[in-house]
Design a protein that fits this description.
19 helices, about 375 residues, about 75% helix, single chain, mainly alpha, ubiquinone, NADH-ubiquinone oxidoreductase
């Protein structure tokens, strides 16, 4: 994409001059989405959480930079789209997409979030190193390379066996910065599965995905802190994404798209409250109850699993969905009441996408 570099430079210059120019963030993401439709129309639904993230940090000194972090992360996704055949640019896109939102974690400047950021940076450096090593070894030692790439993406997704960092980072950080960290990097990691397509033996992601679902549910059911409940639920949804990857990779992205919108909203709500109806909509999204957006990926994942492995696989997935209901009820009861434009906007978007799945699901499944 010849226009990407000058567009990014122009946007960065305007953003620095404007300082608080959220309008520049919105315009940049929209223009980049339009230009990227030459590669795939899937960038249209993918742009939604990045646009919403511009307003996802409620307060703190870094609140006005949420759009900047979101725009840079979306740029990383587009780089992975446009330069899928270039290993070094794939690695650059992955690093940009996963790291840019993370630096906003200490939005409030609290010690816990700063500690969480340093811990995440360590994990991110490990996953990036694994990815770069895998991409560089693809021609020489393909089997080892594919495993390294898959491990890098799974590390970023926070699934077994390297899942505990999610609980550690989320548990010590403020909800303010987690609105971005818990959503955009994981969505970008799921997109990396589609862009890179690591060819690993199917039993590896299936077993680790199934284990992650169980760990996520058991951890969330036995946790009392909201941040840790949502951390374990991230492990659960990452497990869904990894489990279905060998059968239908685009569904991995679809489930993380729904989870990204949900996690972003719930951490925003936890920081300052929400109307009860909006909290209910987002909780329904996370469980997978219609007509919320999250219903469709889980339904399609169950159907794909049954077709591939039989009814036992579908029953296991359904059991994990049912297991999530009790702790999401606690999440709903824990969210304080409040009024914010973002709360209404995110709930409306989740409902709208749930009512018109054809707007987004066919583009995602075409990848």
């Amino acid at each position: 994409m010849e226009l990407l570099a000058p567009l990014l430079i122009t946007y960065t210059a305007v953003r620095i001059i404007a300082n608080r120019g959220r309008w520049a963030d919105v315009a940049y993401i929209i223009v980049l989405t339009y230009l990227s439709t030459v590669y795939t129309y899937a960038v249209i639904p993918l742009a939604v959480p990045y646009l919403l993230a511009i307003y996802a940090i409620r307060r703190g000194k870094l609140a006005n930079y949420a759009g900047f972090g979101s725009a840079l992360s979306f740029t990383g996704v587009i780089i992975m789209t446009a330069y899928a055949n270039s290993p070094h640019l794939l690695a650059l896109g992955f690093v940009m997409a996963t790291l840019a939102p993370a630096v906003l974690l200490p939005a409030l400047g609290d010690r816990g979030s700063l500690e969480g950021l340093f811990r995440y940076l360590l994990i991110s450096s490990i996953s990036s190193s694994l990815l770069i090593s895998g991409l560089s070894l693809r021609s020489a030692w393909p089997e080892i390379a594919e495993l390294l790439i898959m491990l890098a993406i799974m590390t970023e997704l926070g699934v077994a066996p390297i899942y505990i960092w999610v609980v550690d980072v989320y548990g010590r950080s403020s909800a303010t910065g987690l609105a971005l960290l818990a959503s955009l990097p994981k969505l970008a990691a799921a997109y990396a599965l589609i862009a890179i397509r690591p060819a690993v033996p199917a039993p590896i992601p299936v077993v680790l995905g199934a284990l992650s679902m169980l760990i996520g549910n058991l951890g969330a059911l036995t946790s009392r802190e909201l941040n840790k409940i949502l951390a374990y639920s991230s492990v659960l949804h990452g497990g869904f994404a990894v489990f279905i990857y060998p059968v239908n990779p685009p569904l991995s992205l679809a489930i993380m798209l729904a989870d990204a919108l949900g996690k972003m909203s719930l951490f925003y709500y936890a920081d300052g409250g929400s109307a009860k109806w909006a909290s209910l909509v987002i909780v329904m999204n996370q469980i997978g109850i219609p007509p919320a957006l999250g219903f469709w990926p889980k339904l399609l994942i169950i159907i794909a699993a049954v077709e591939a492995w039989g009814w036992a696989a579908g029953a296991y997935l359904l059991a994990n969905i049912v297991m999530s209901v009790p702790y999401y009820i606690r999440v709903f009861q824990t969210i304080p009441e409040g009024v914010a434009k973002f709360a209404f906007l995110s709930a409306v978007i989740v409902l709208a996408l749930g009512f018109v799945p054809d707007f987004w699901i066919r583009y995602i499944l075409s990848l």
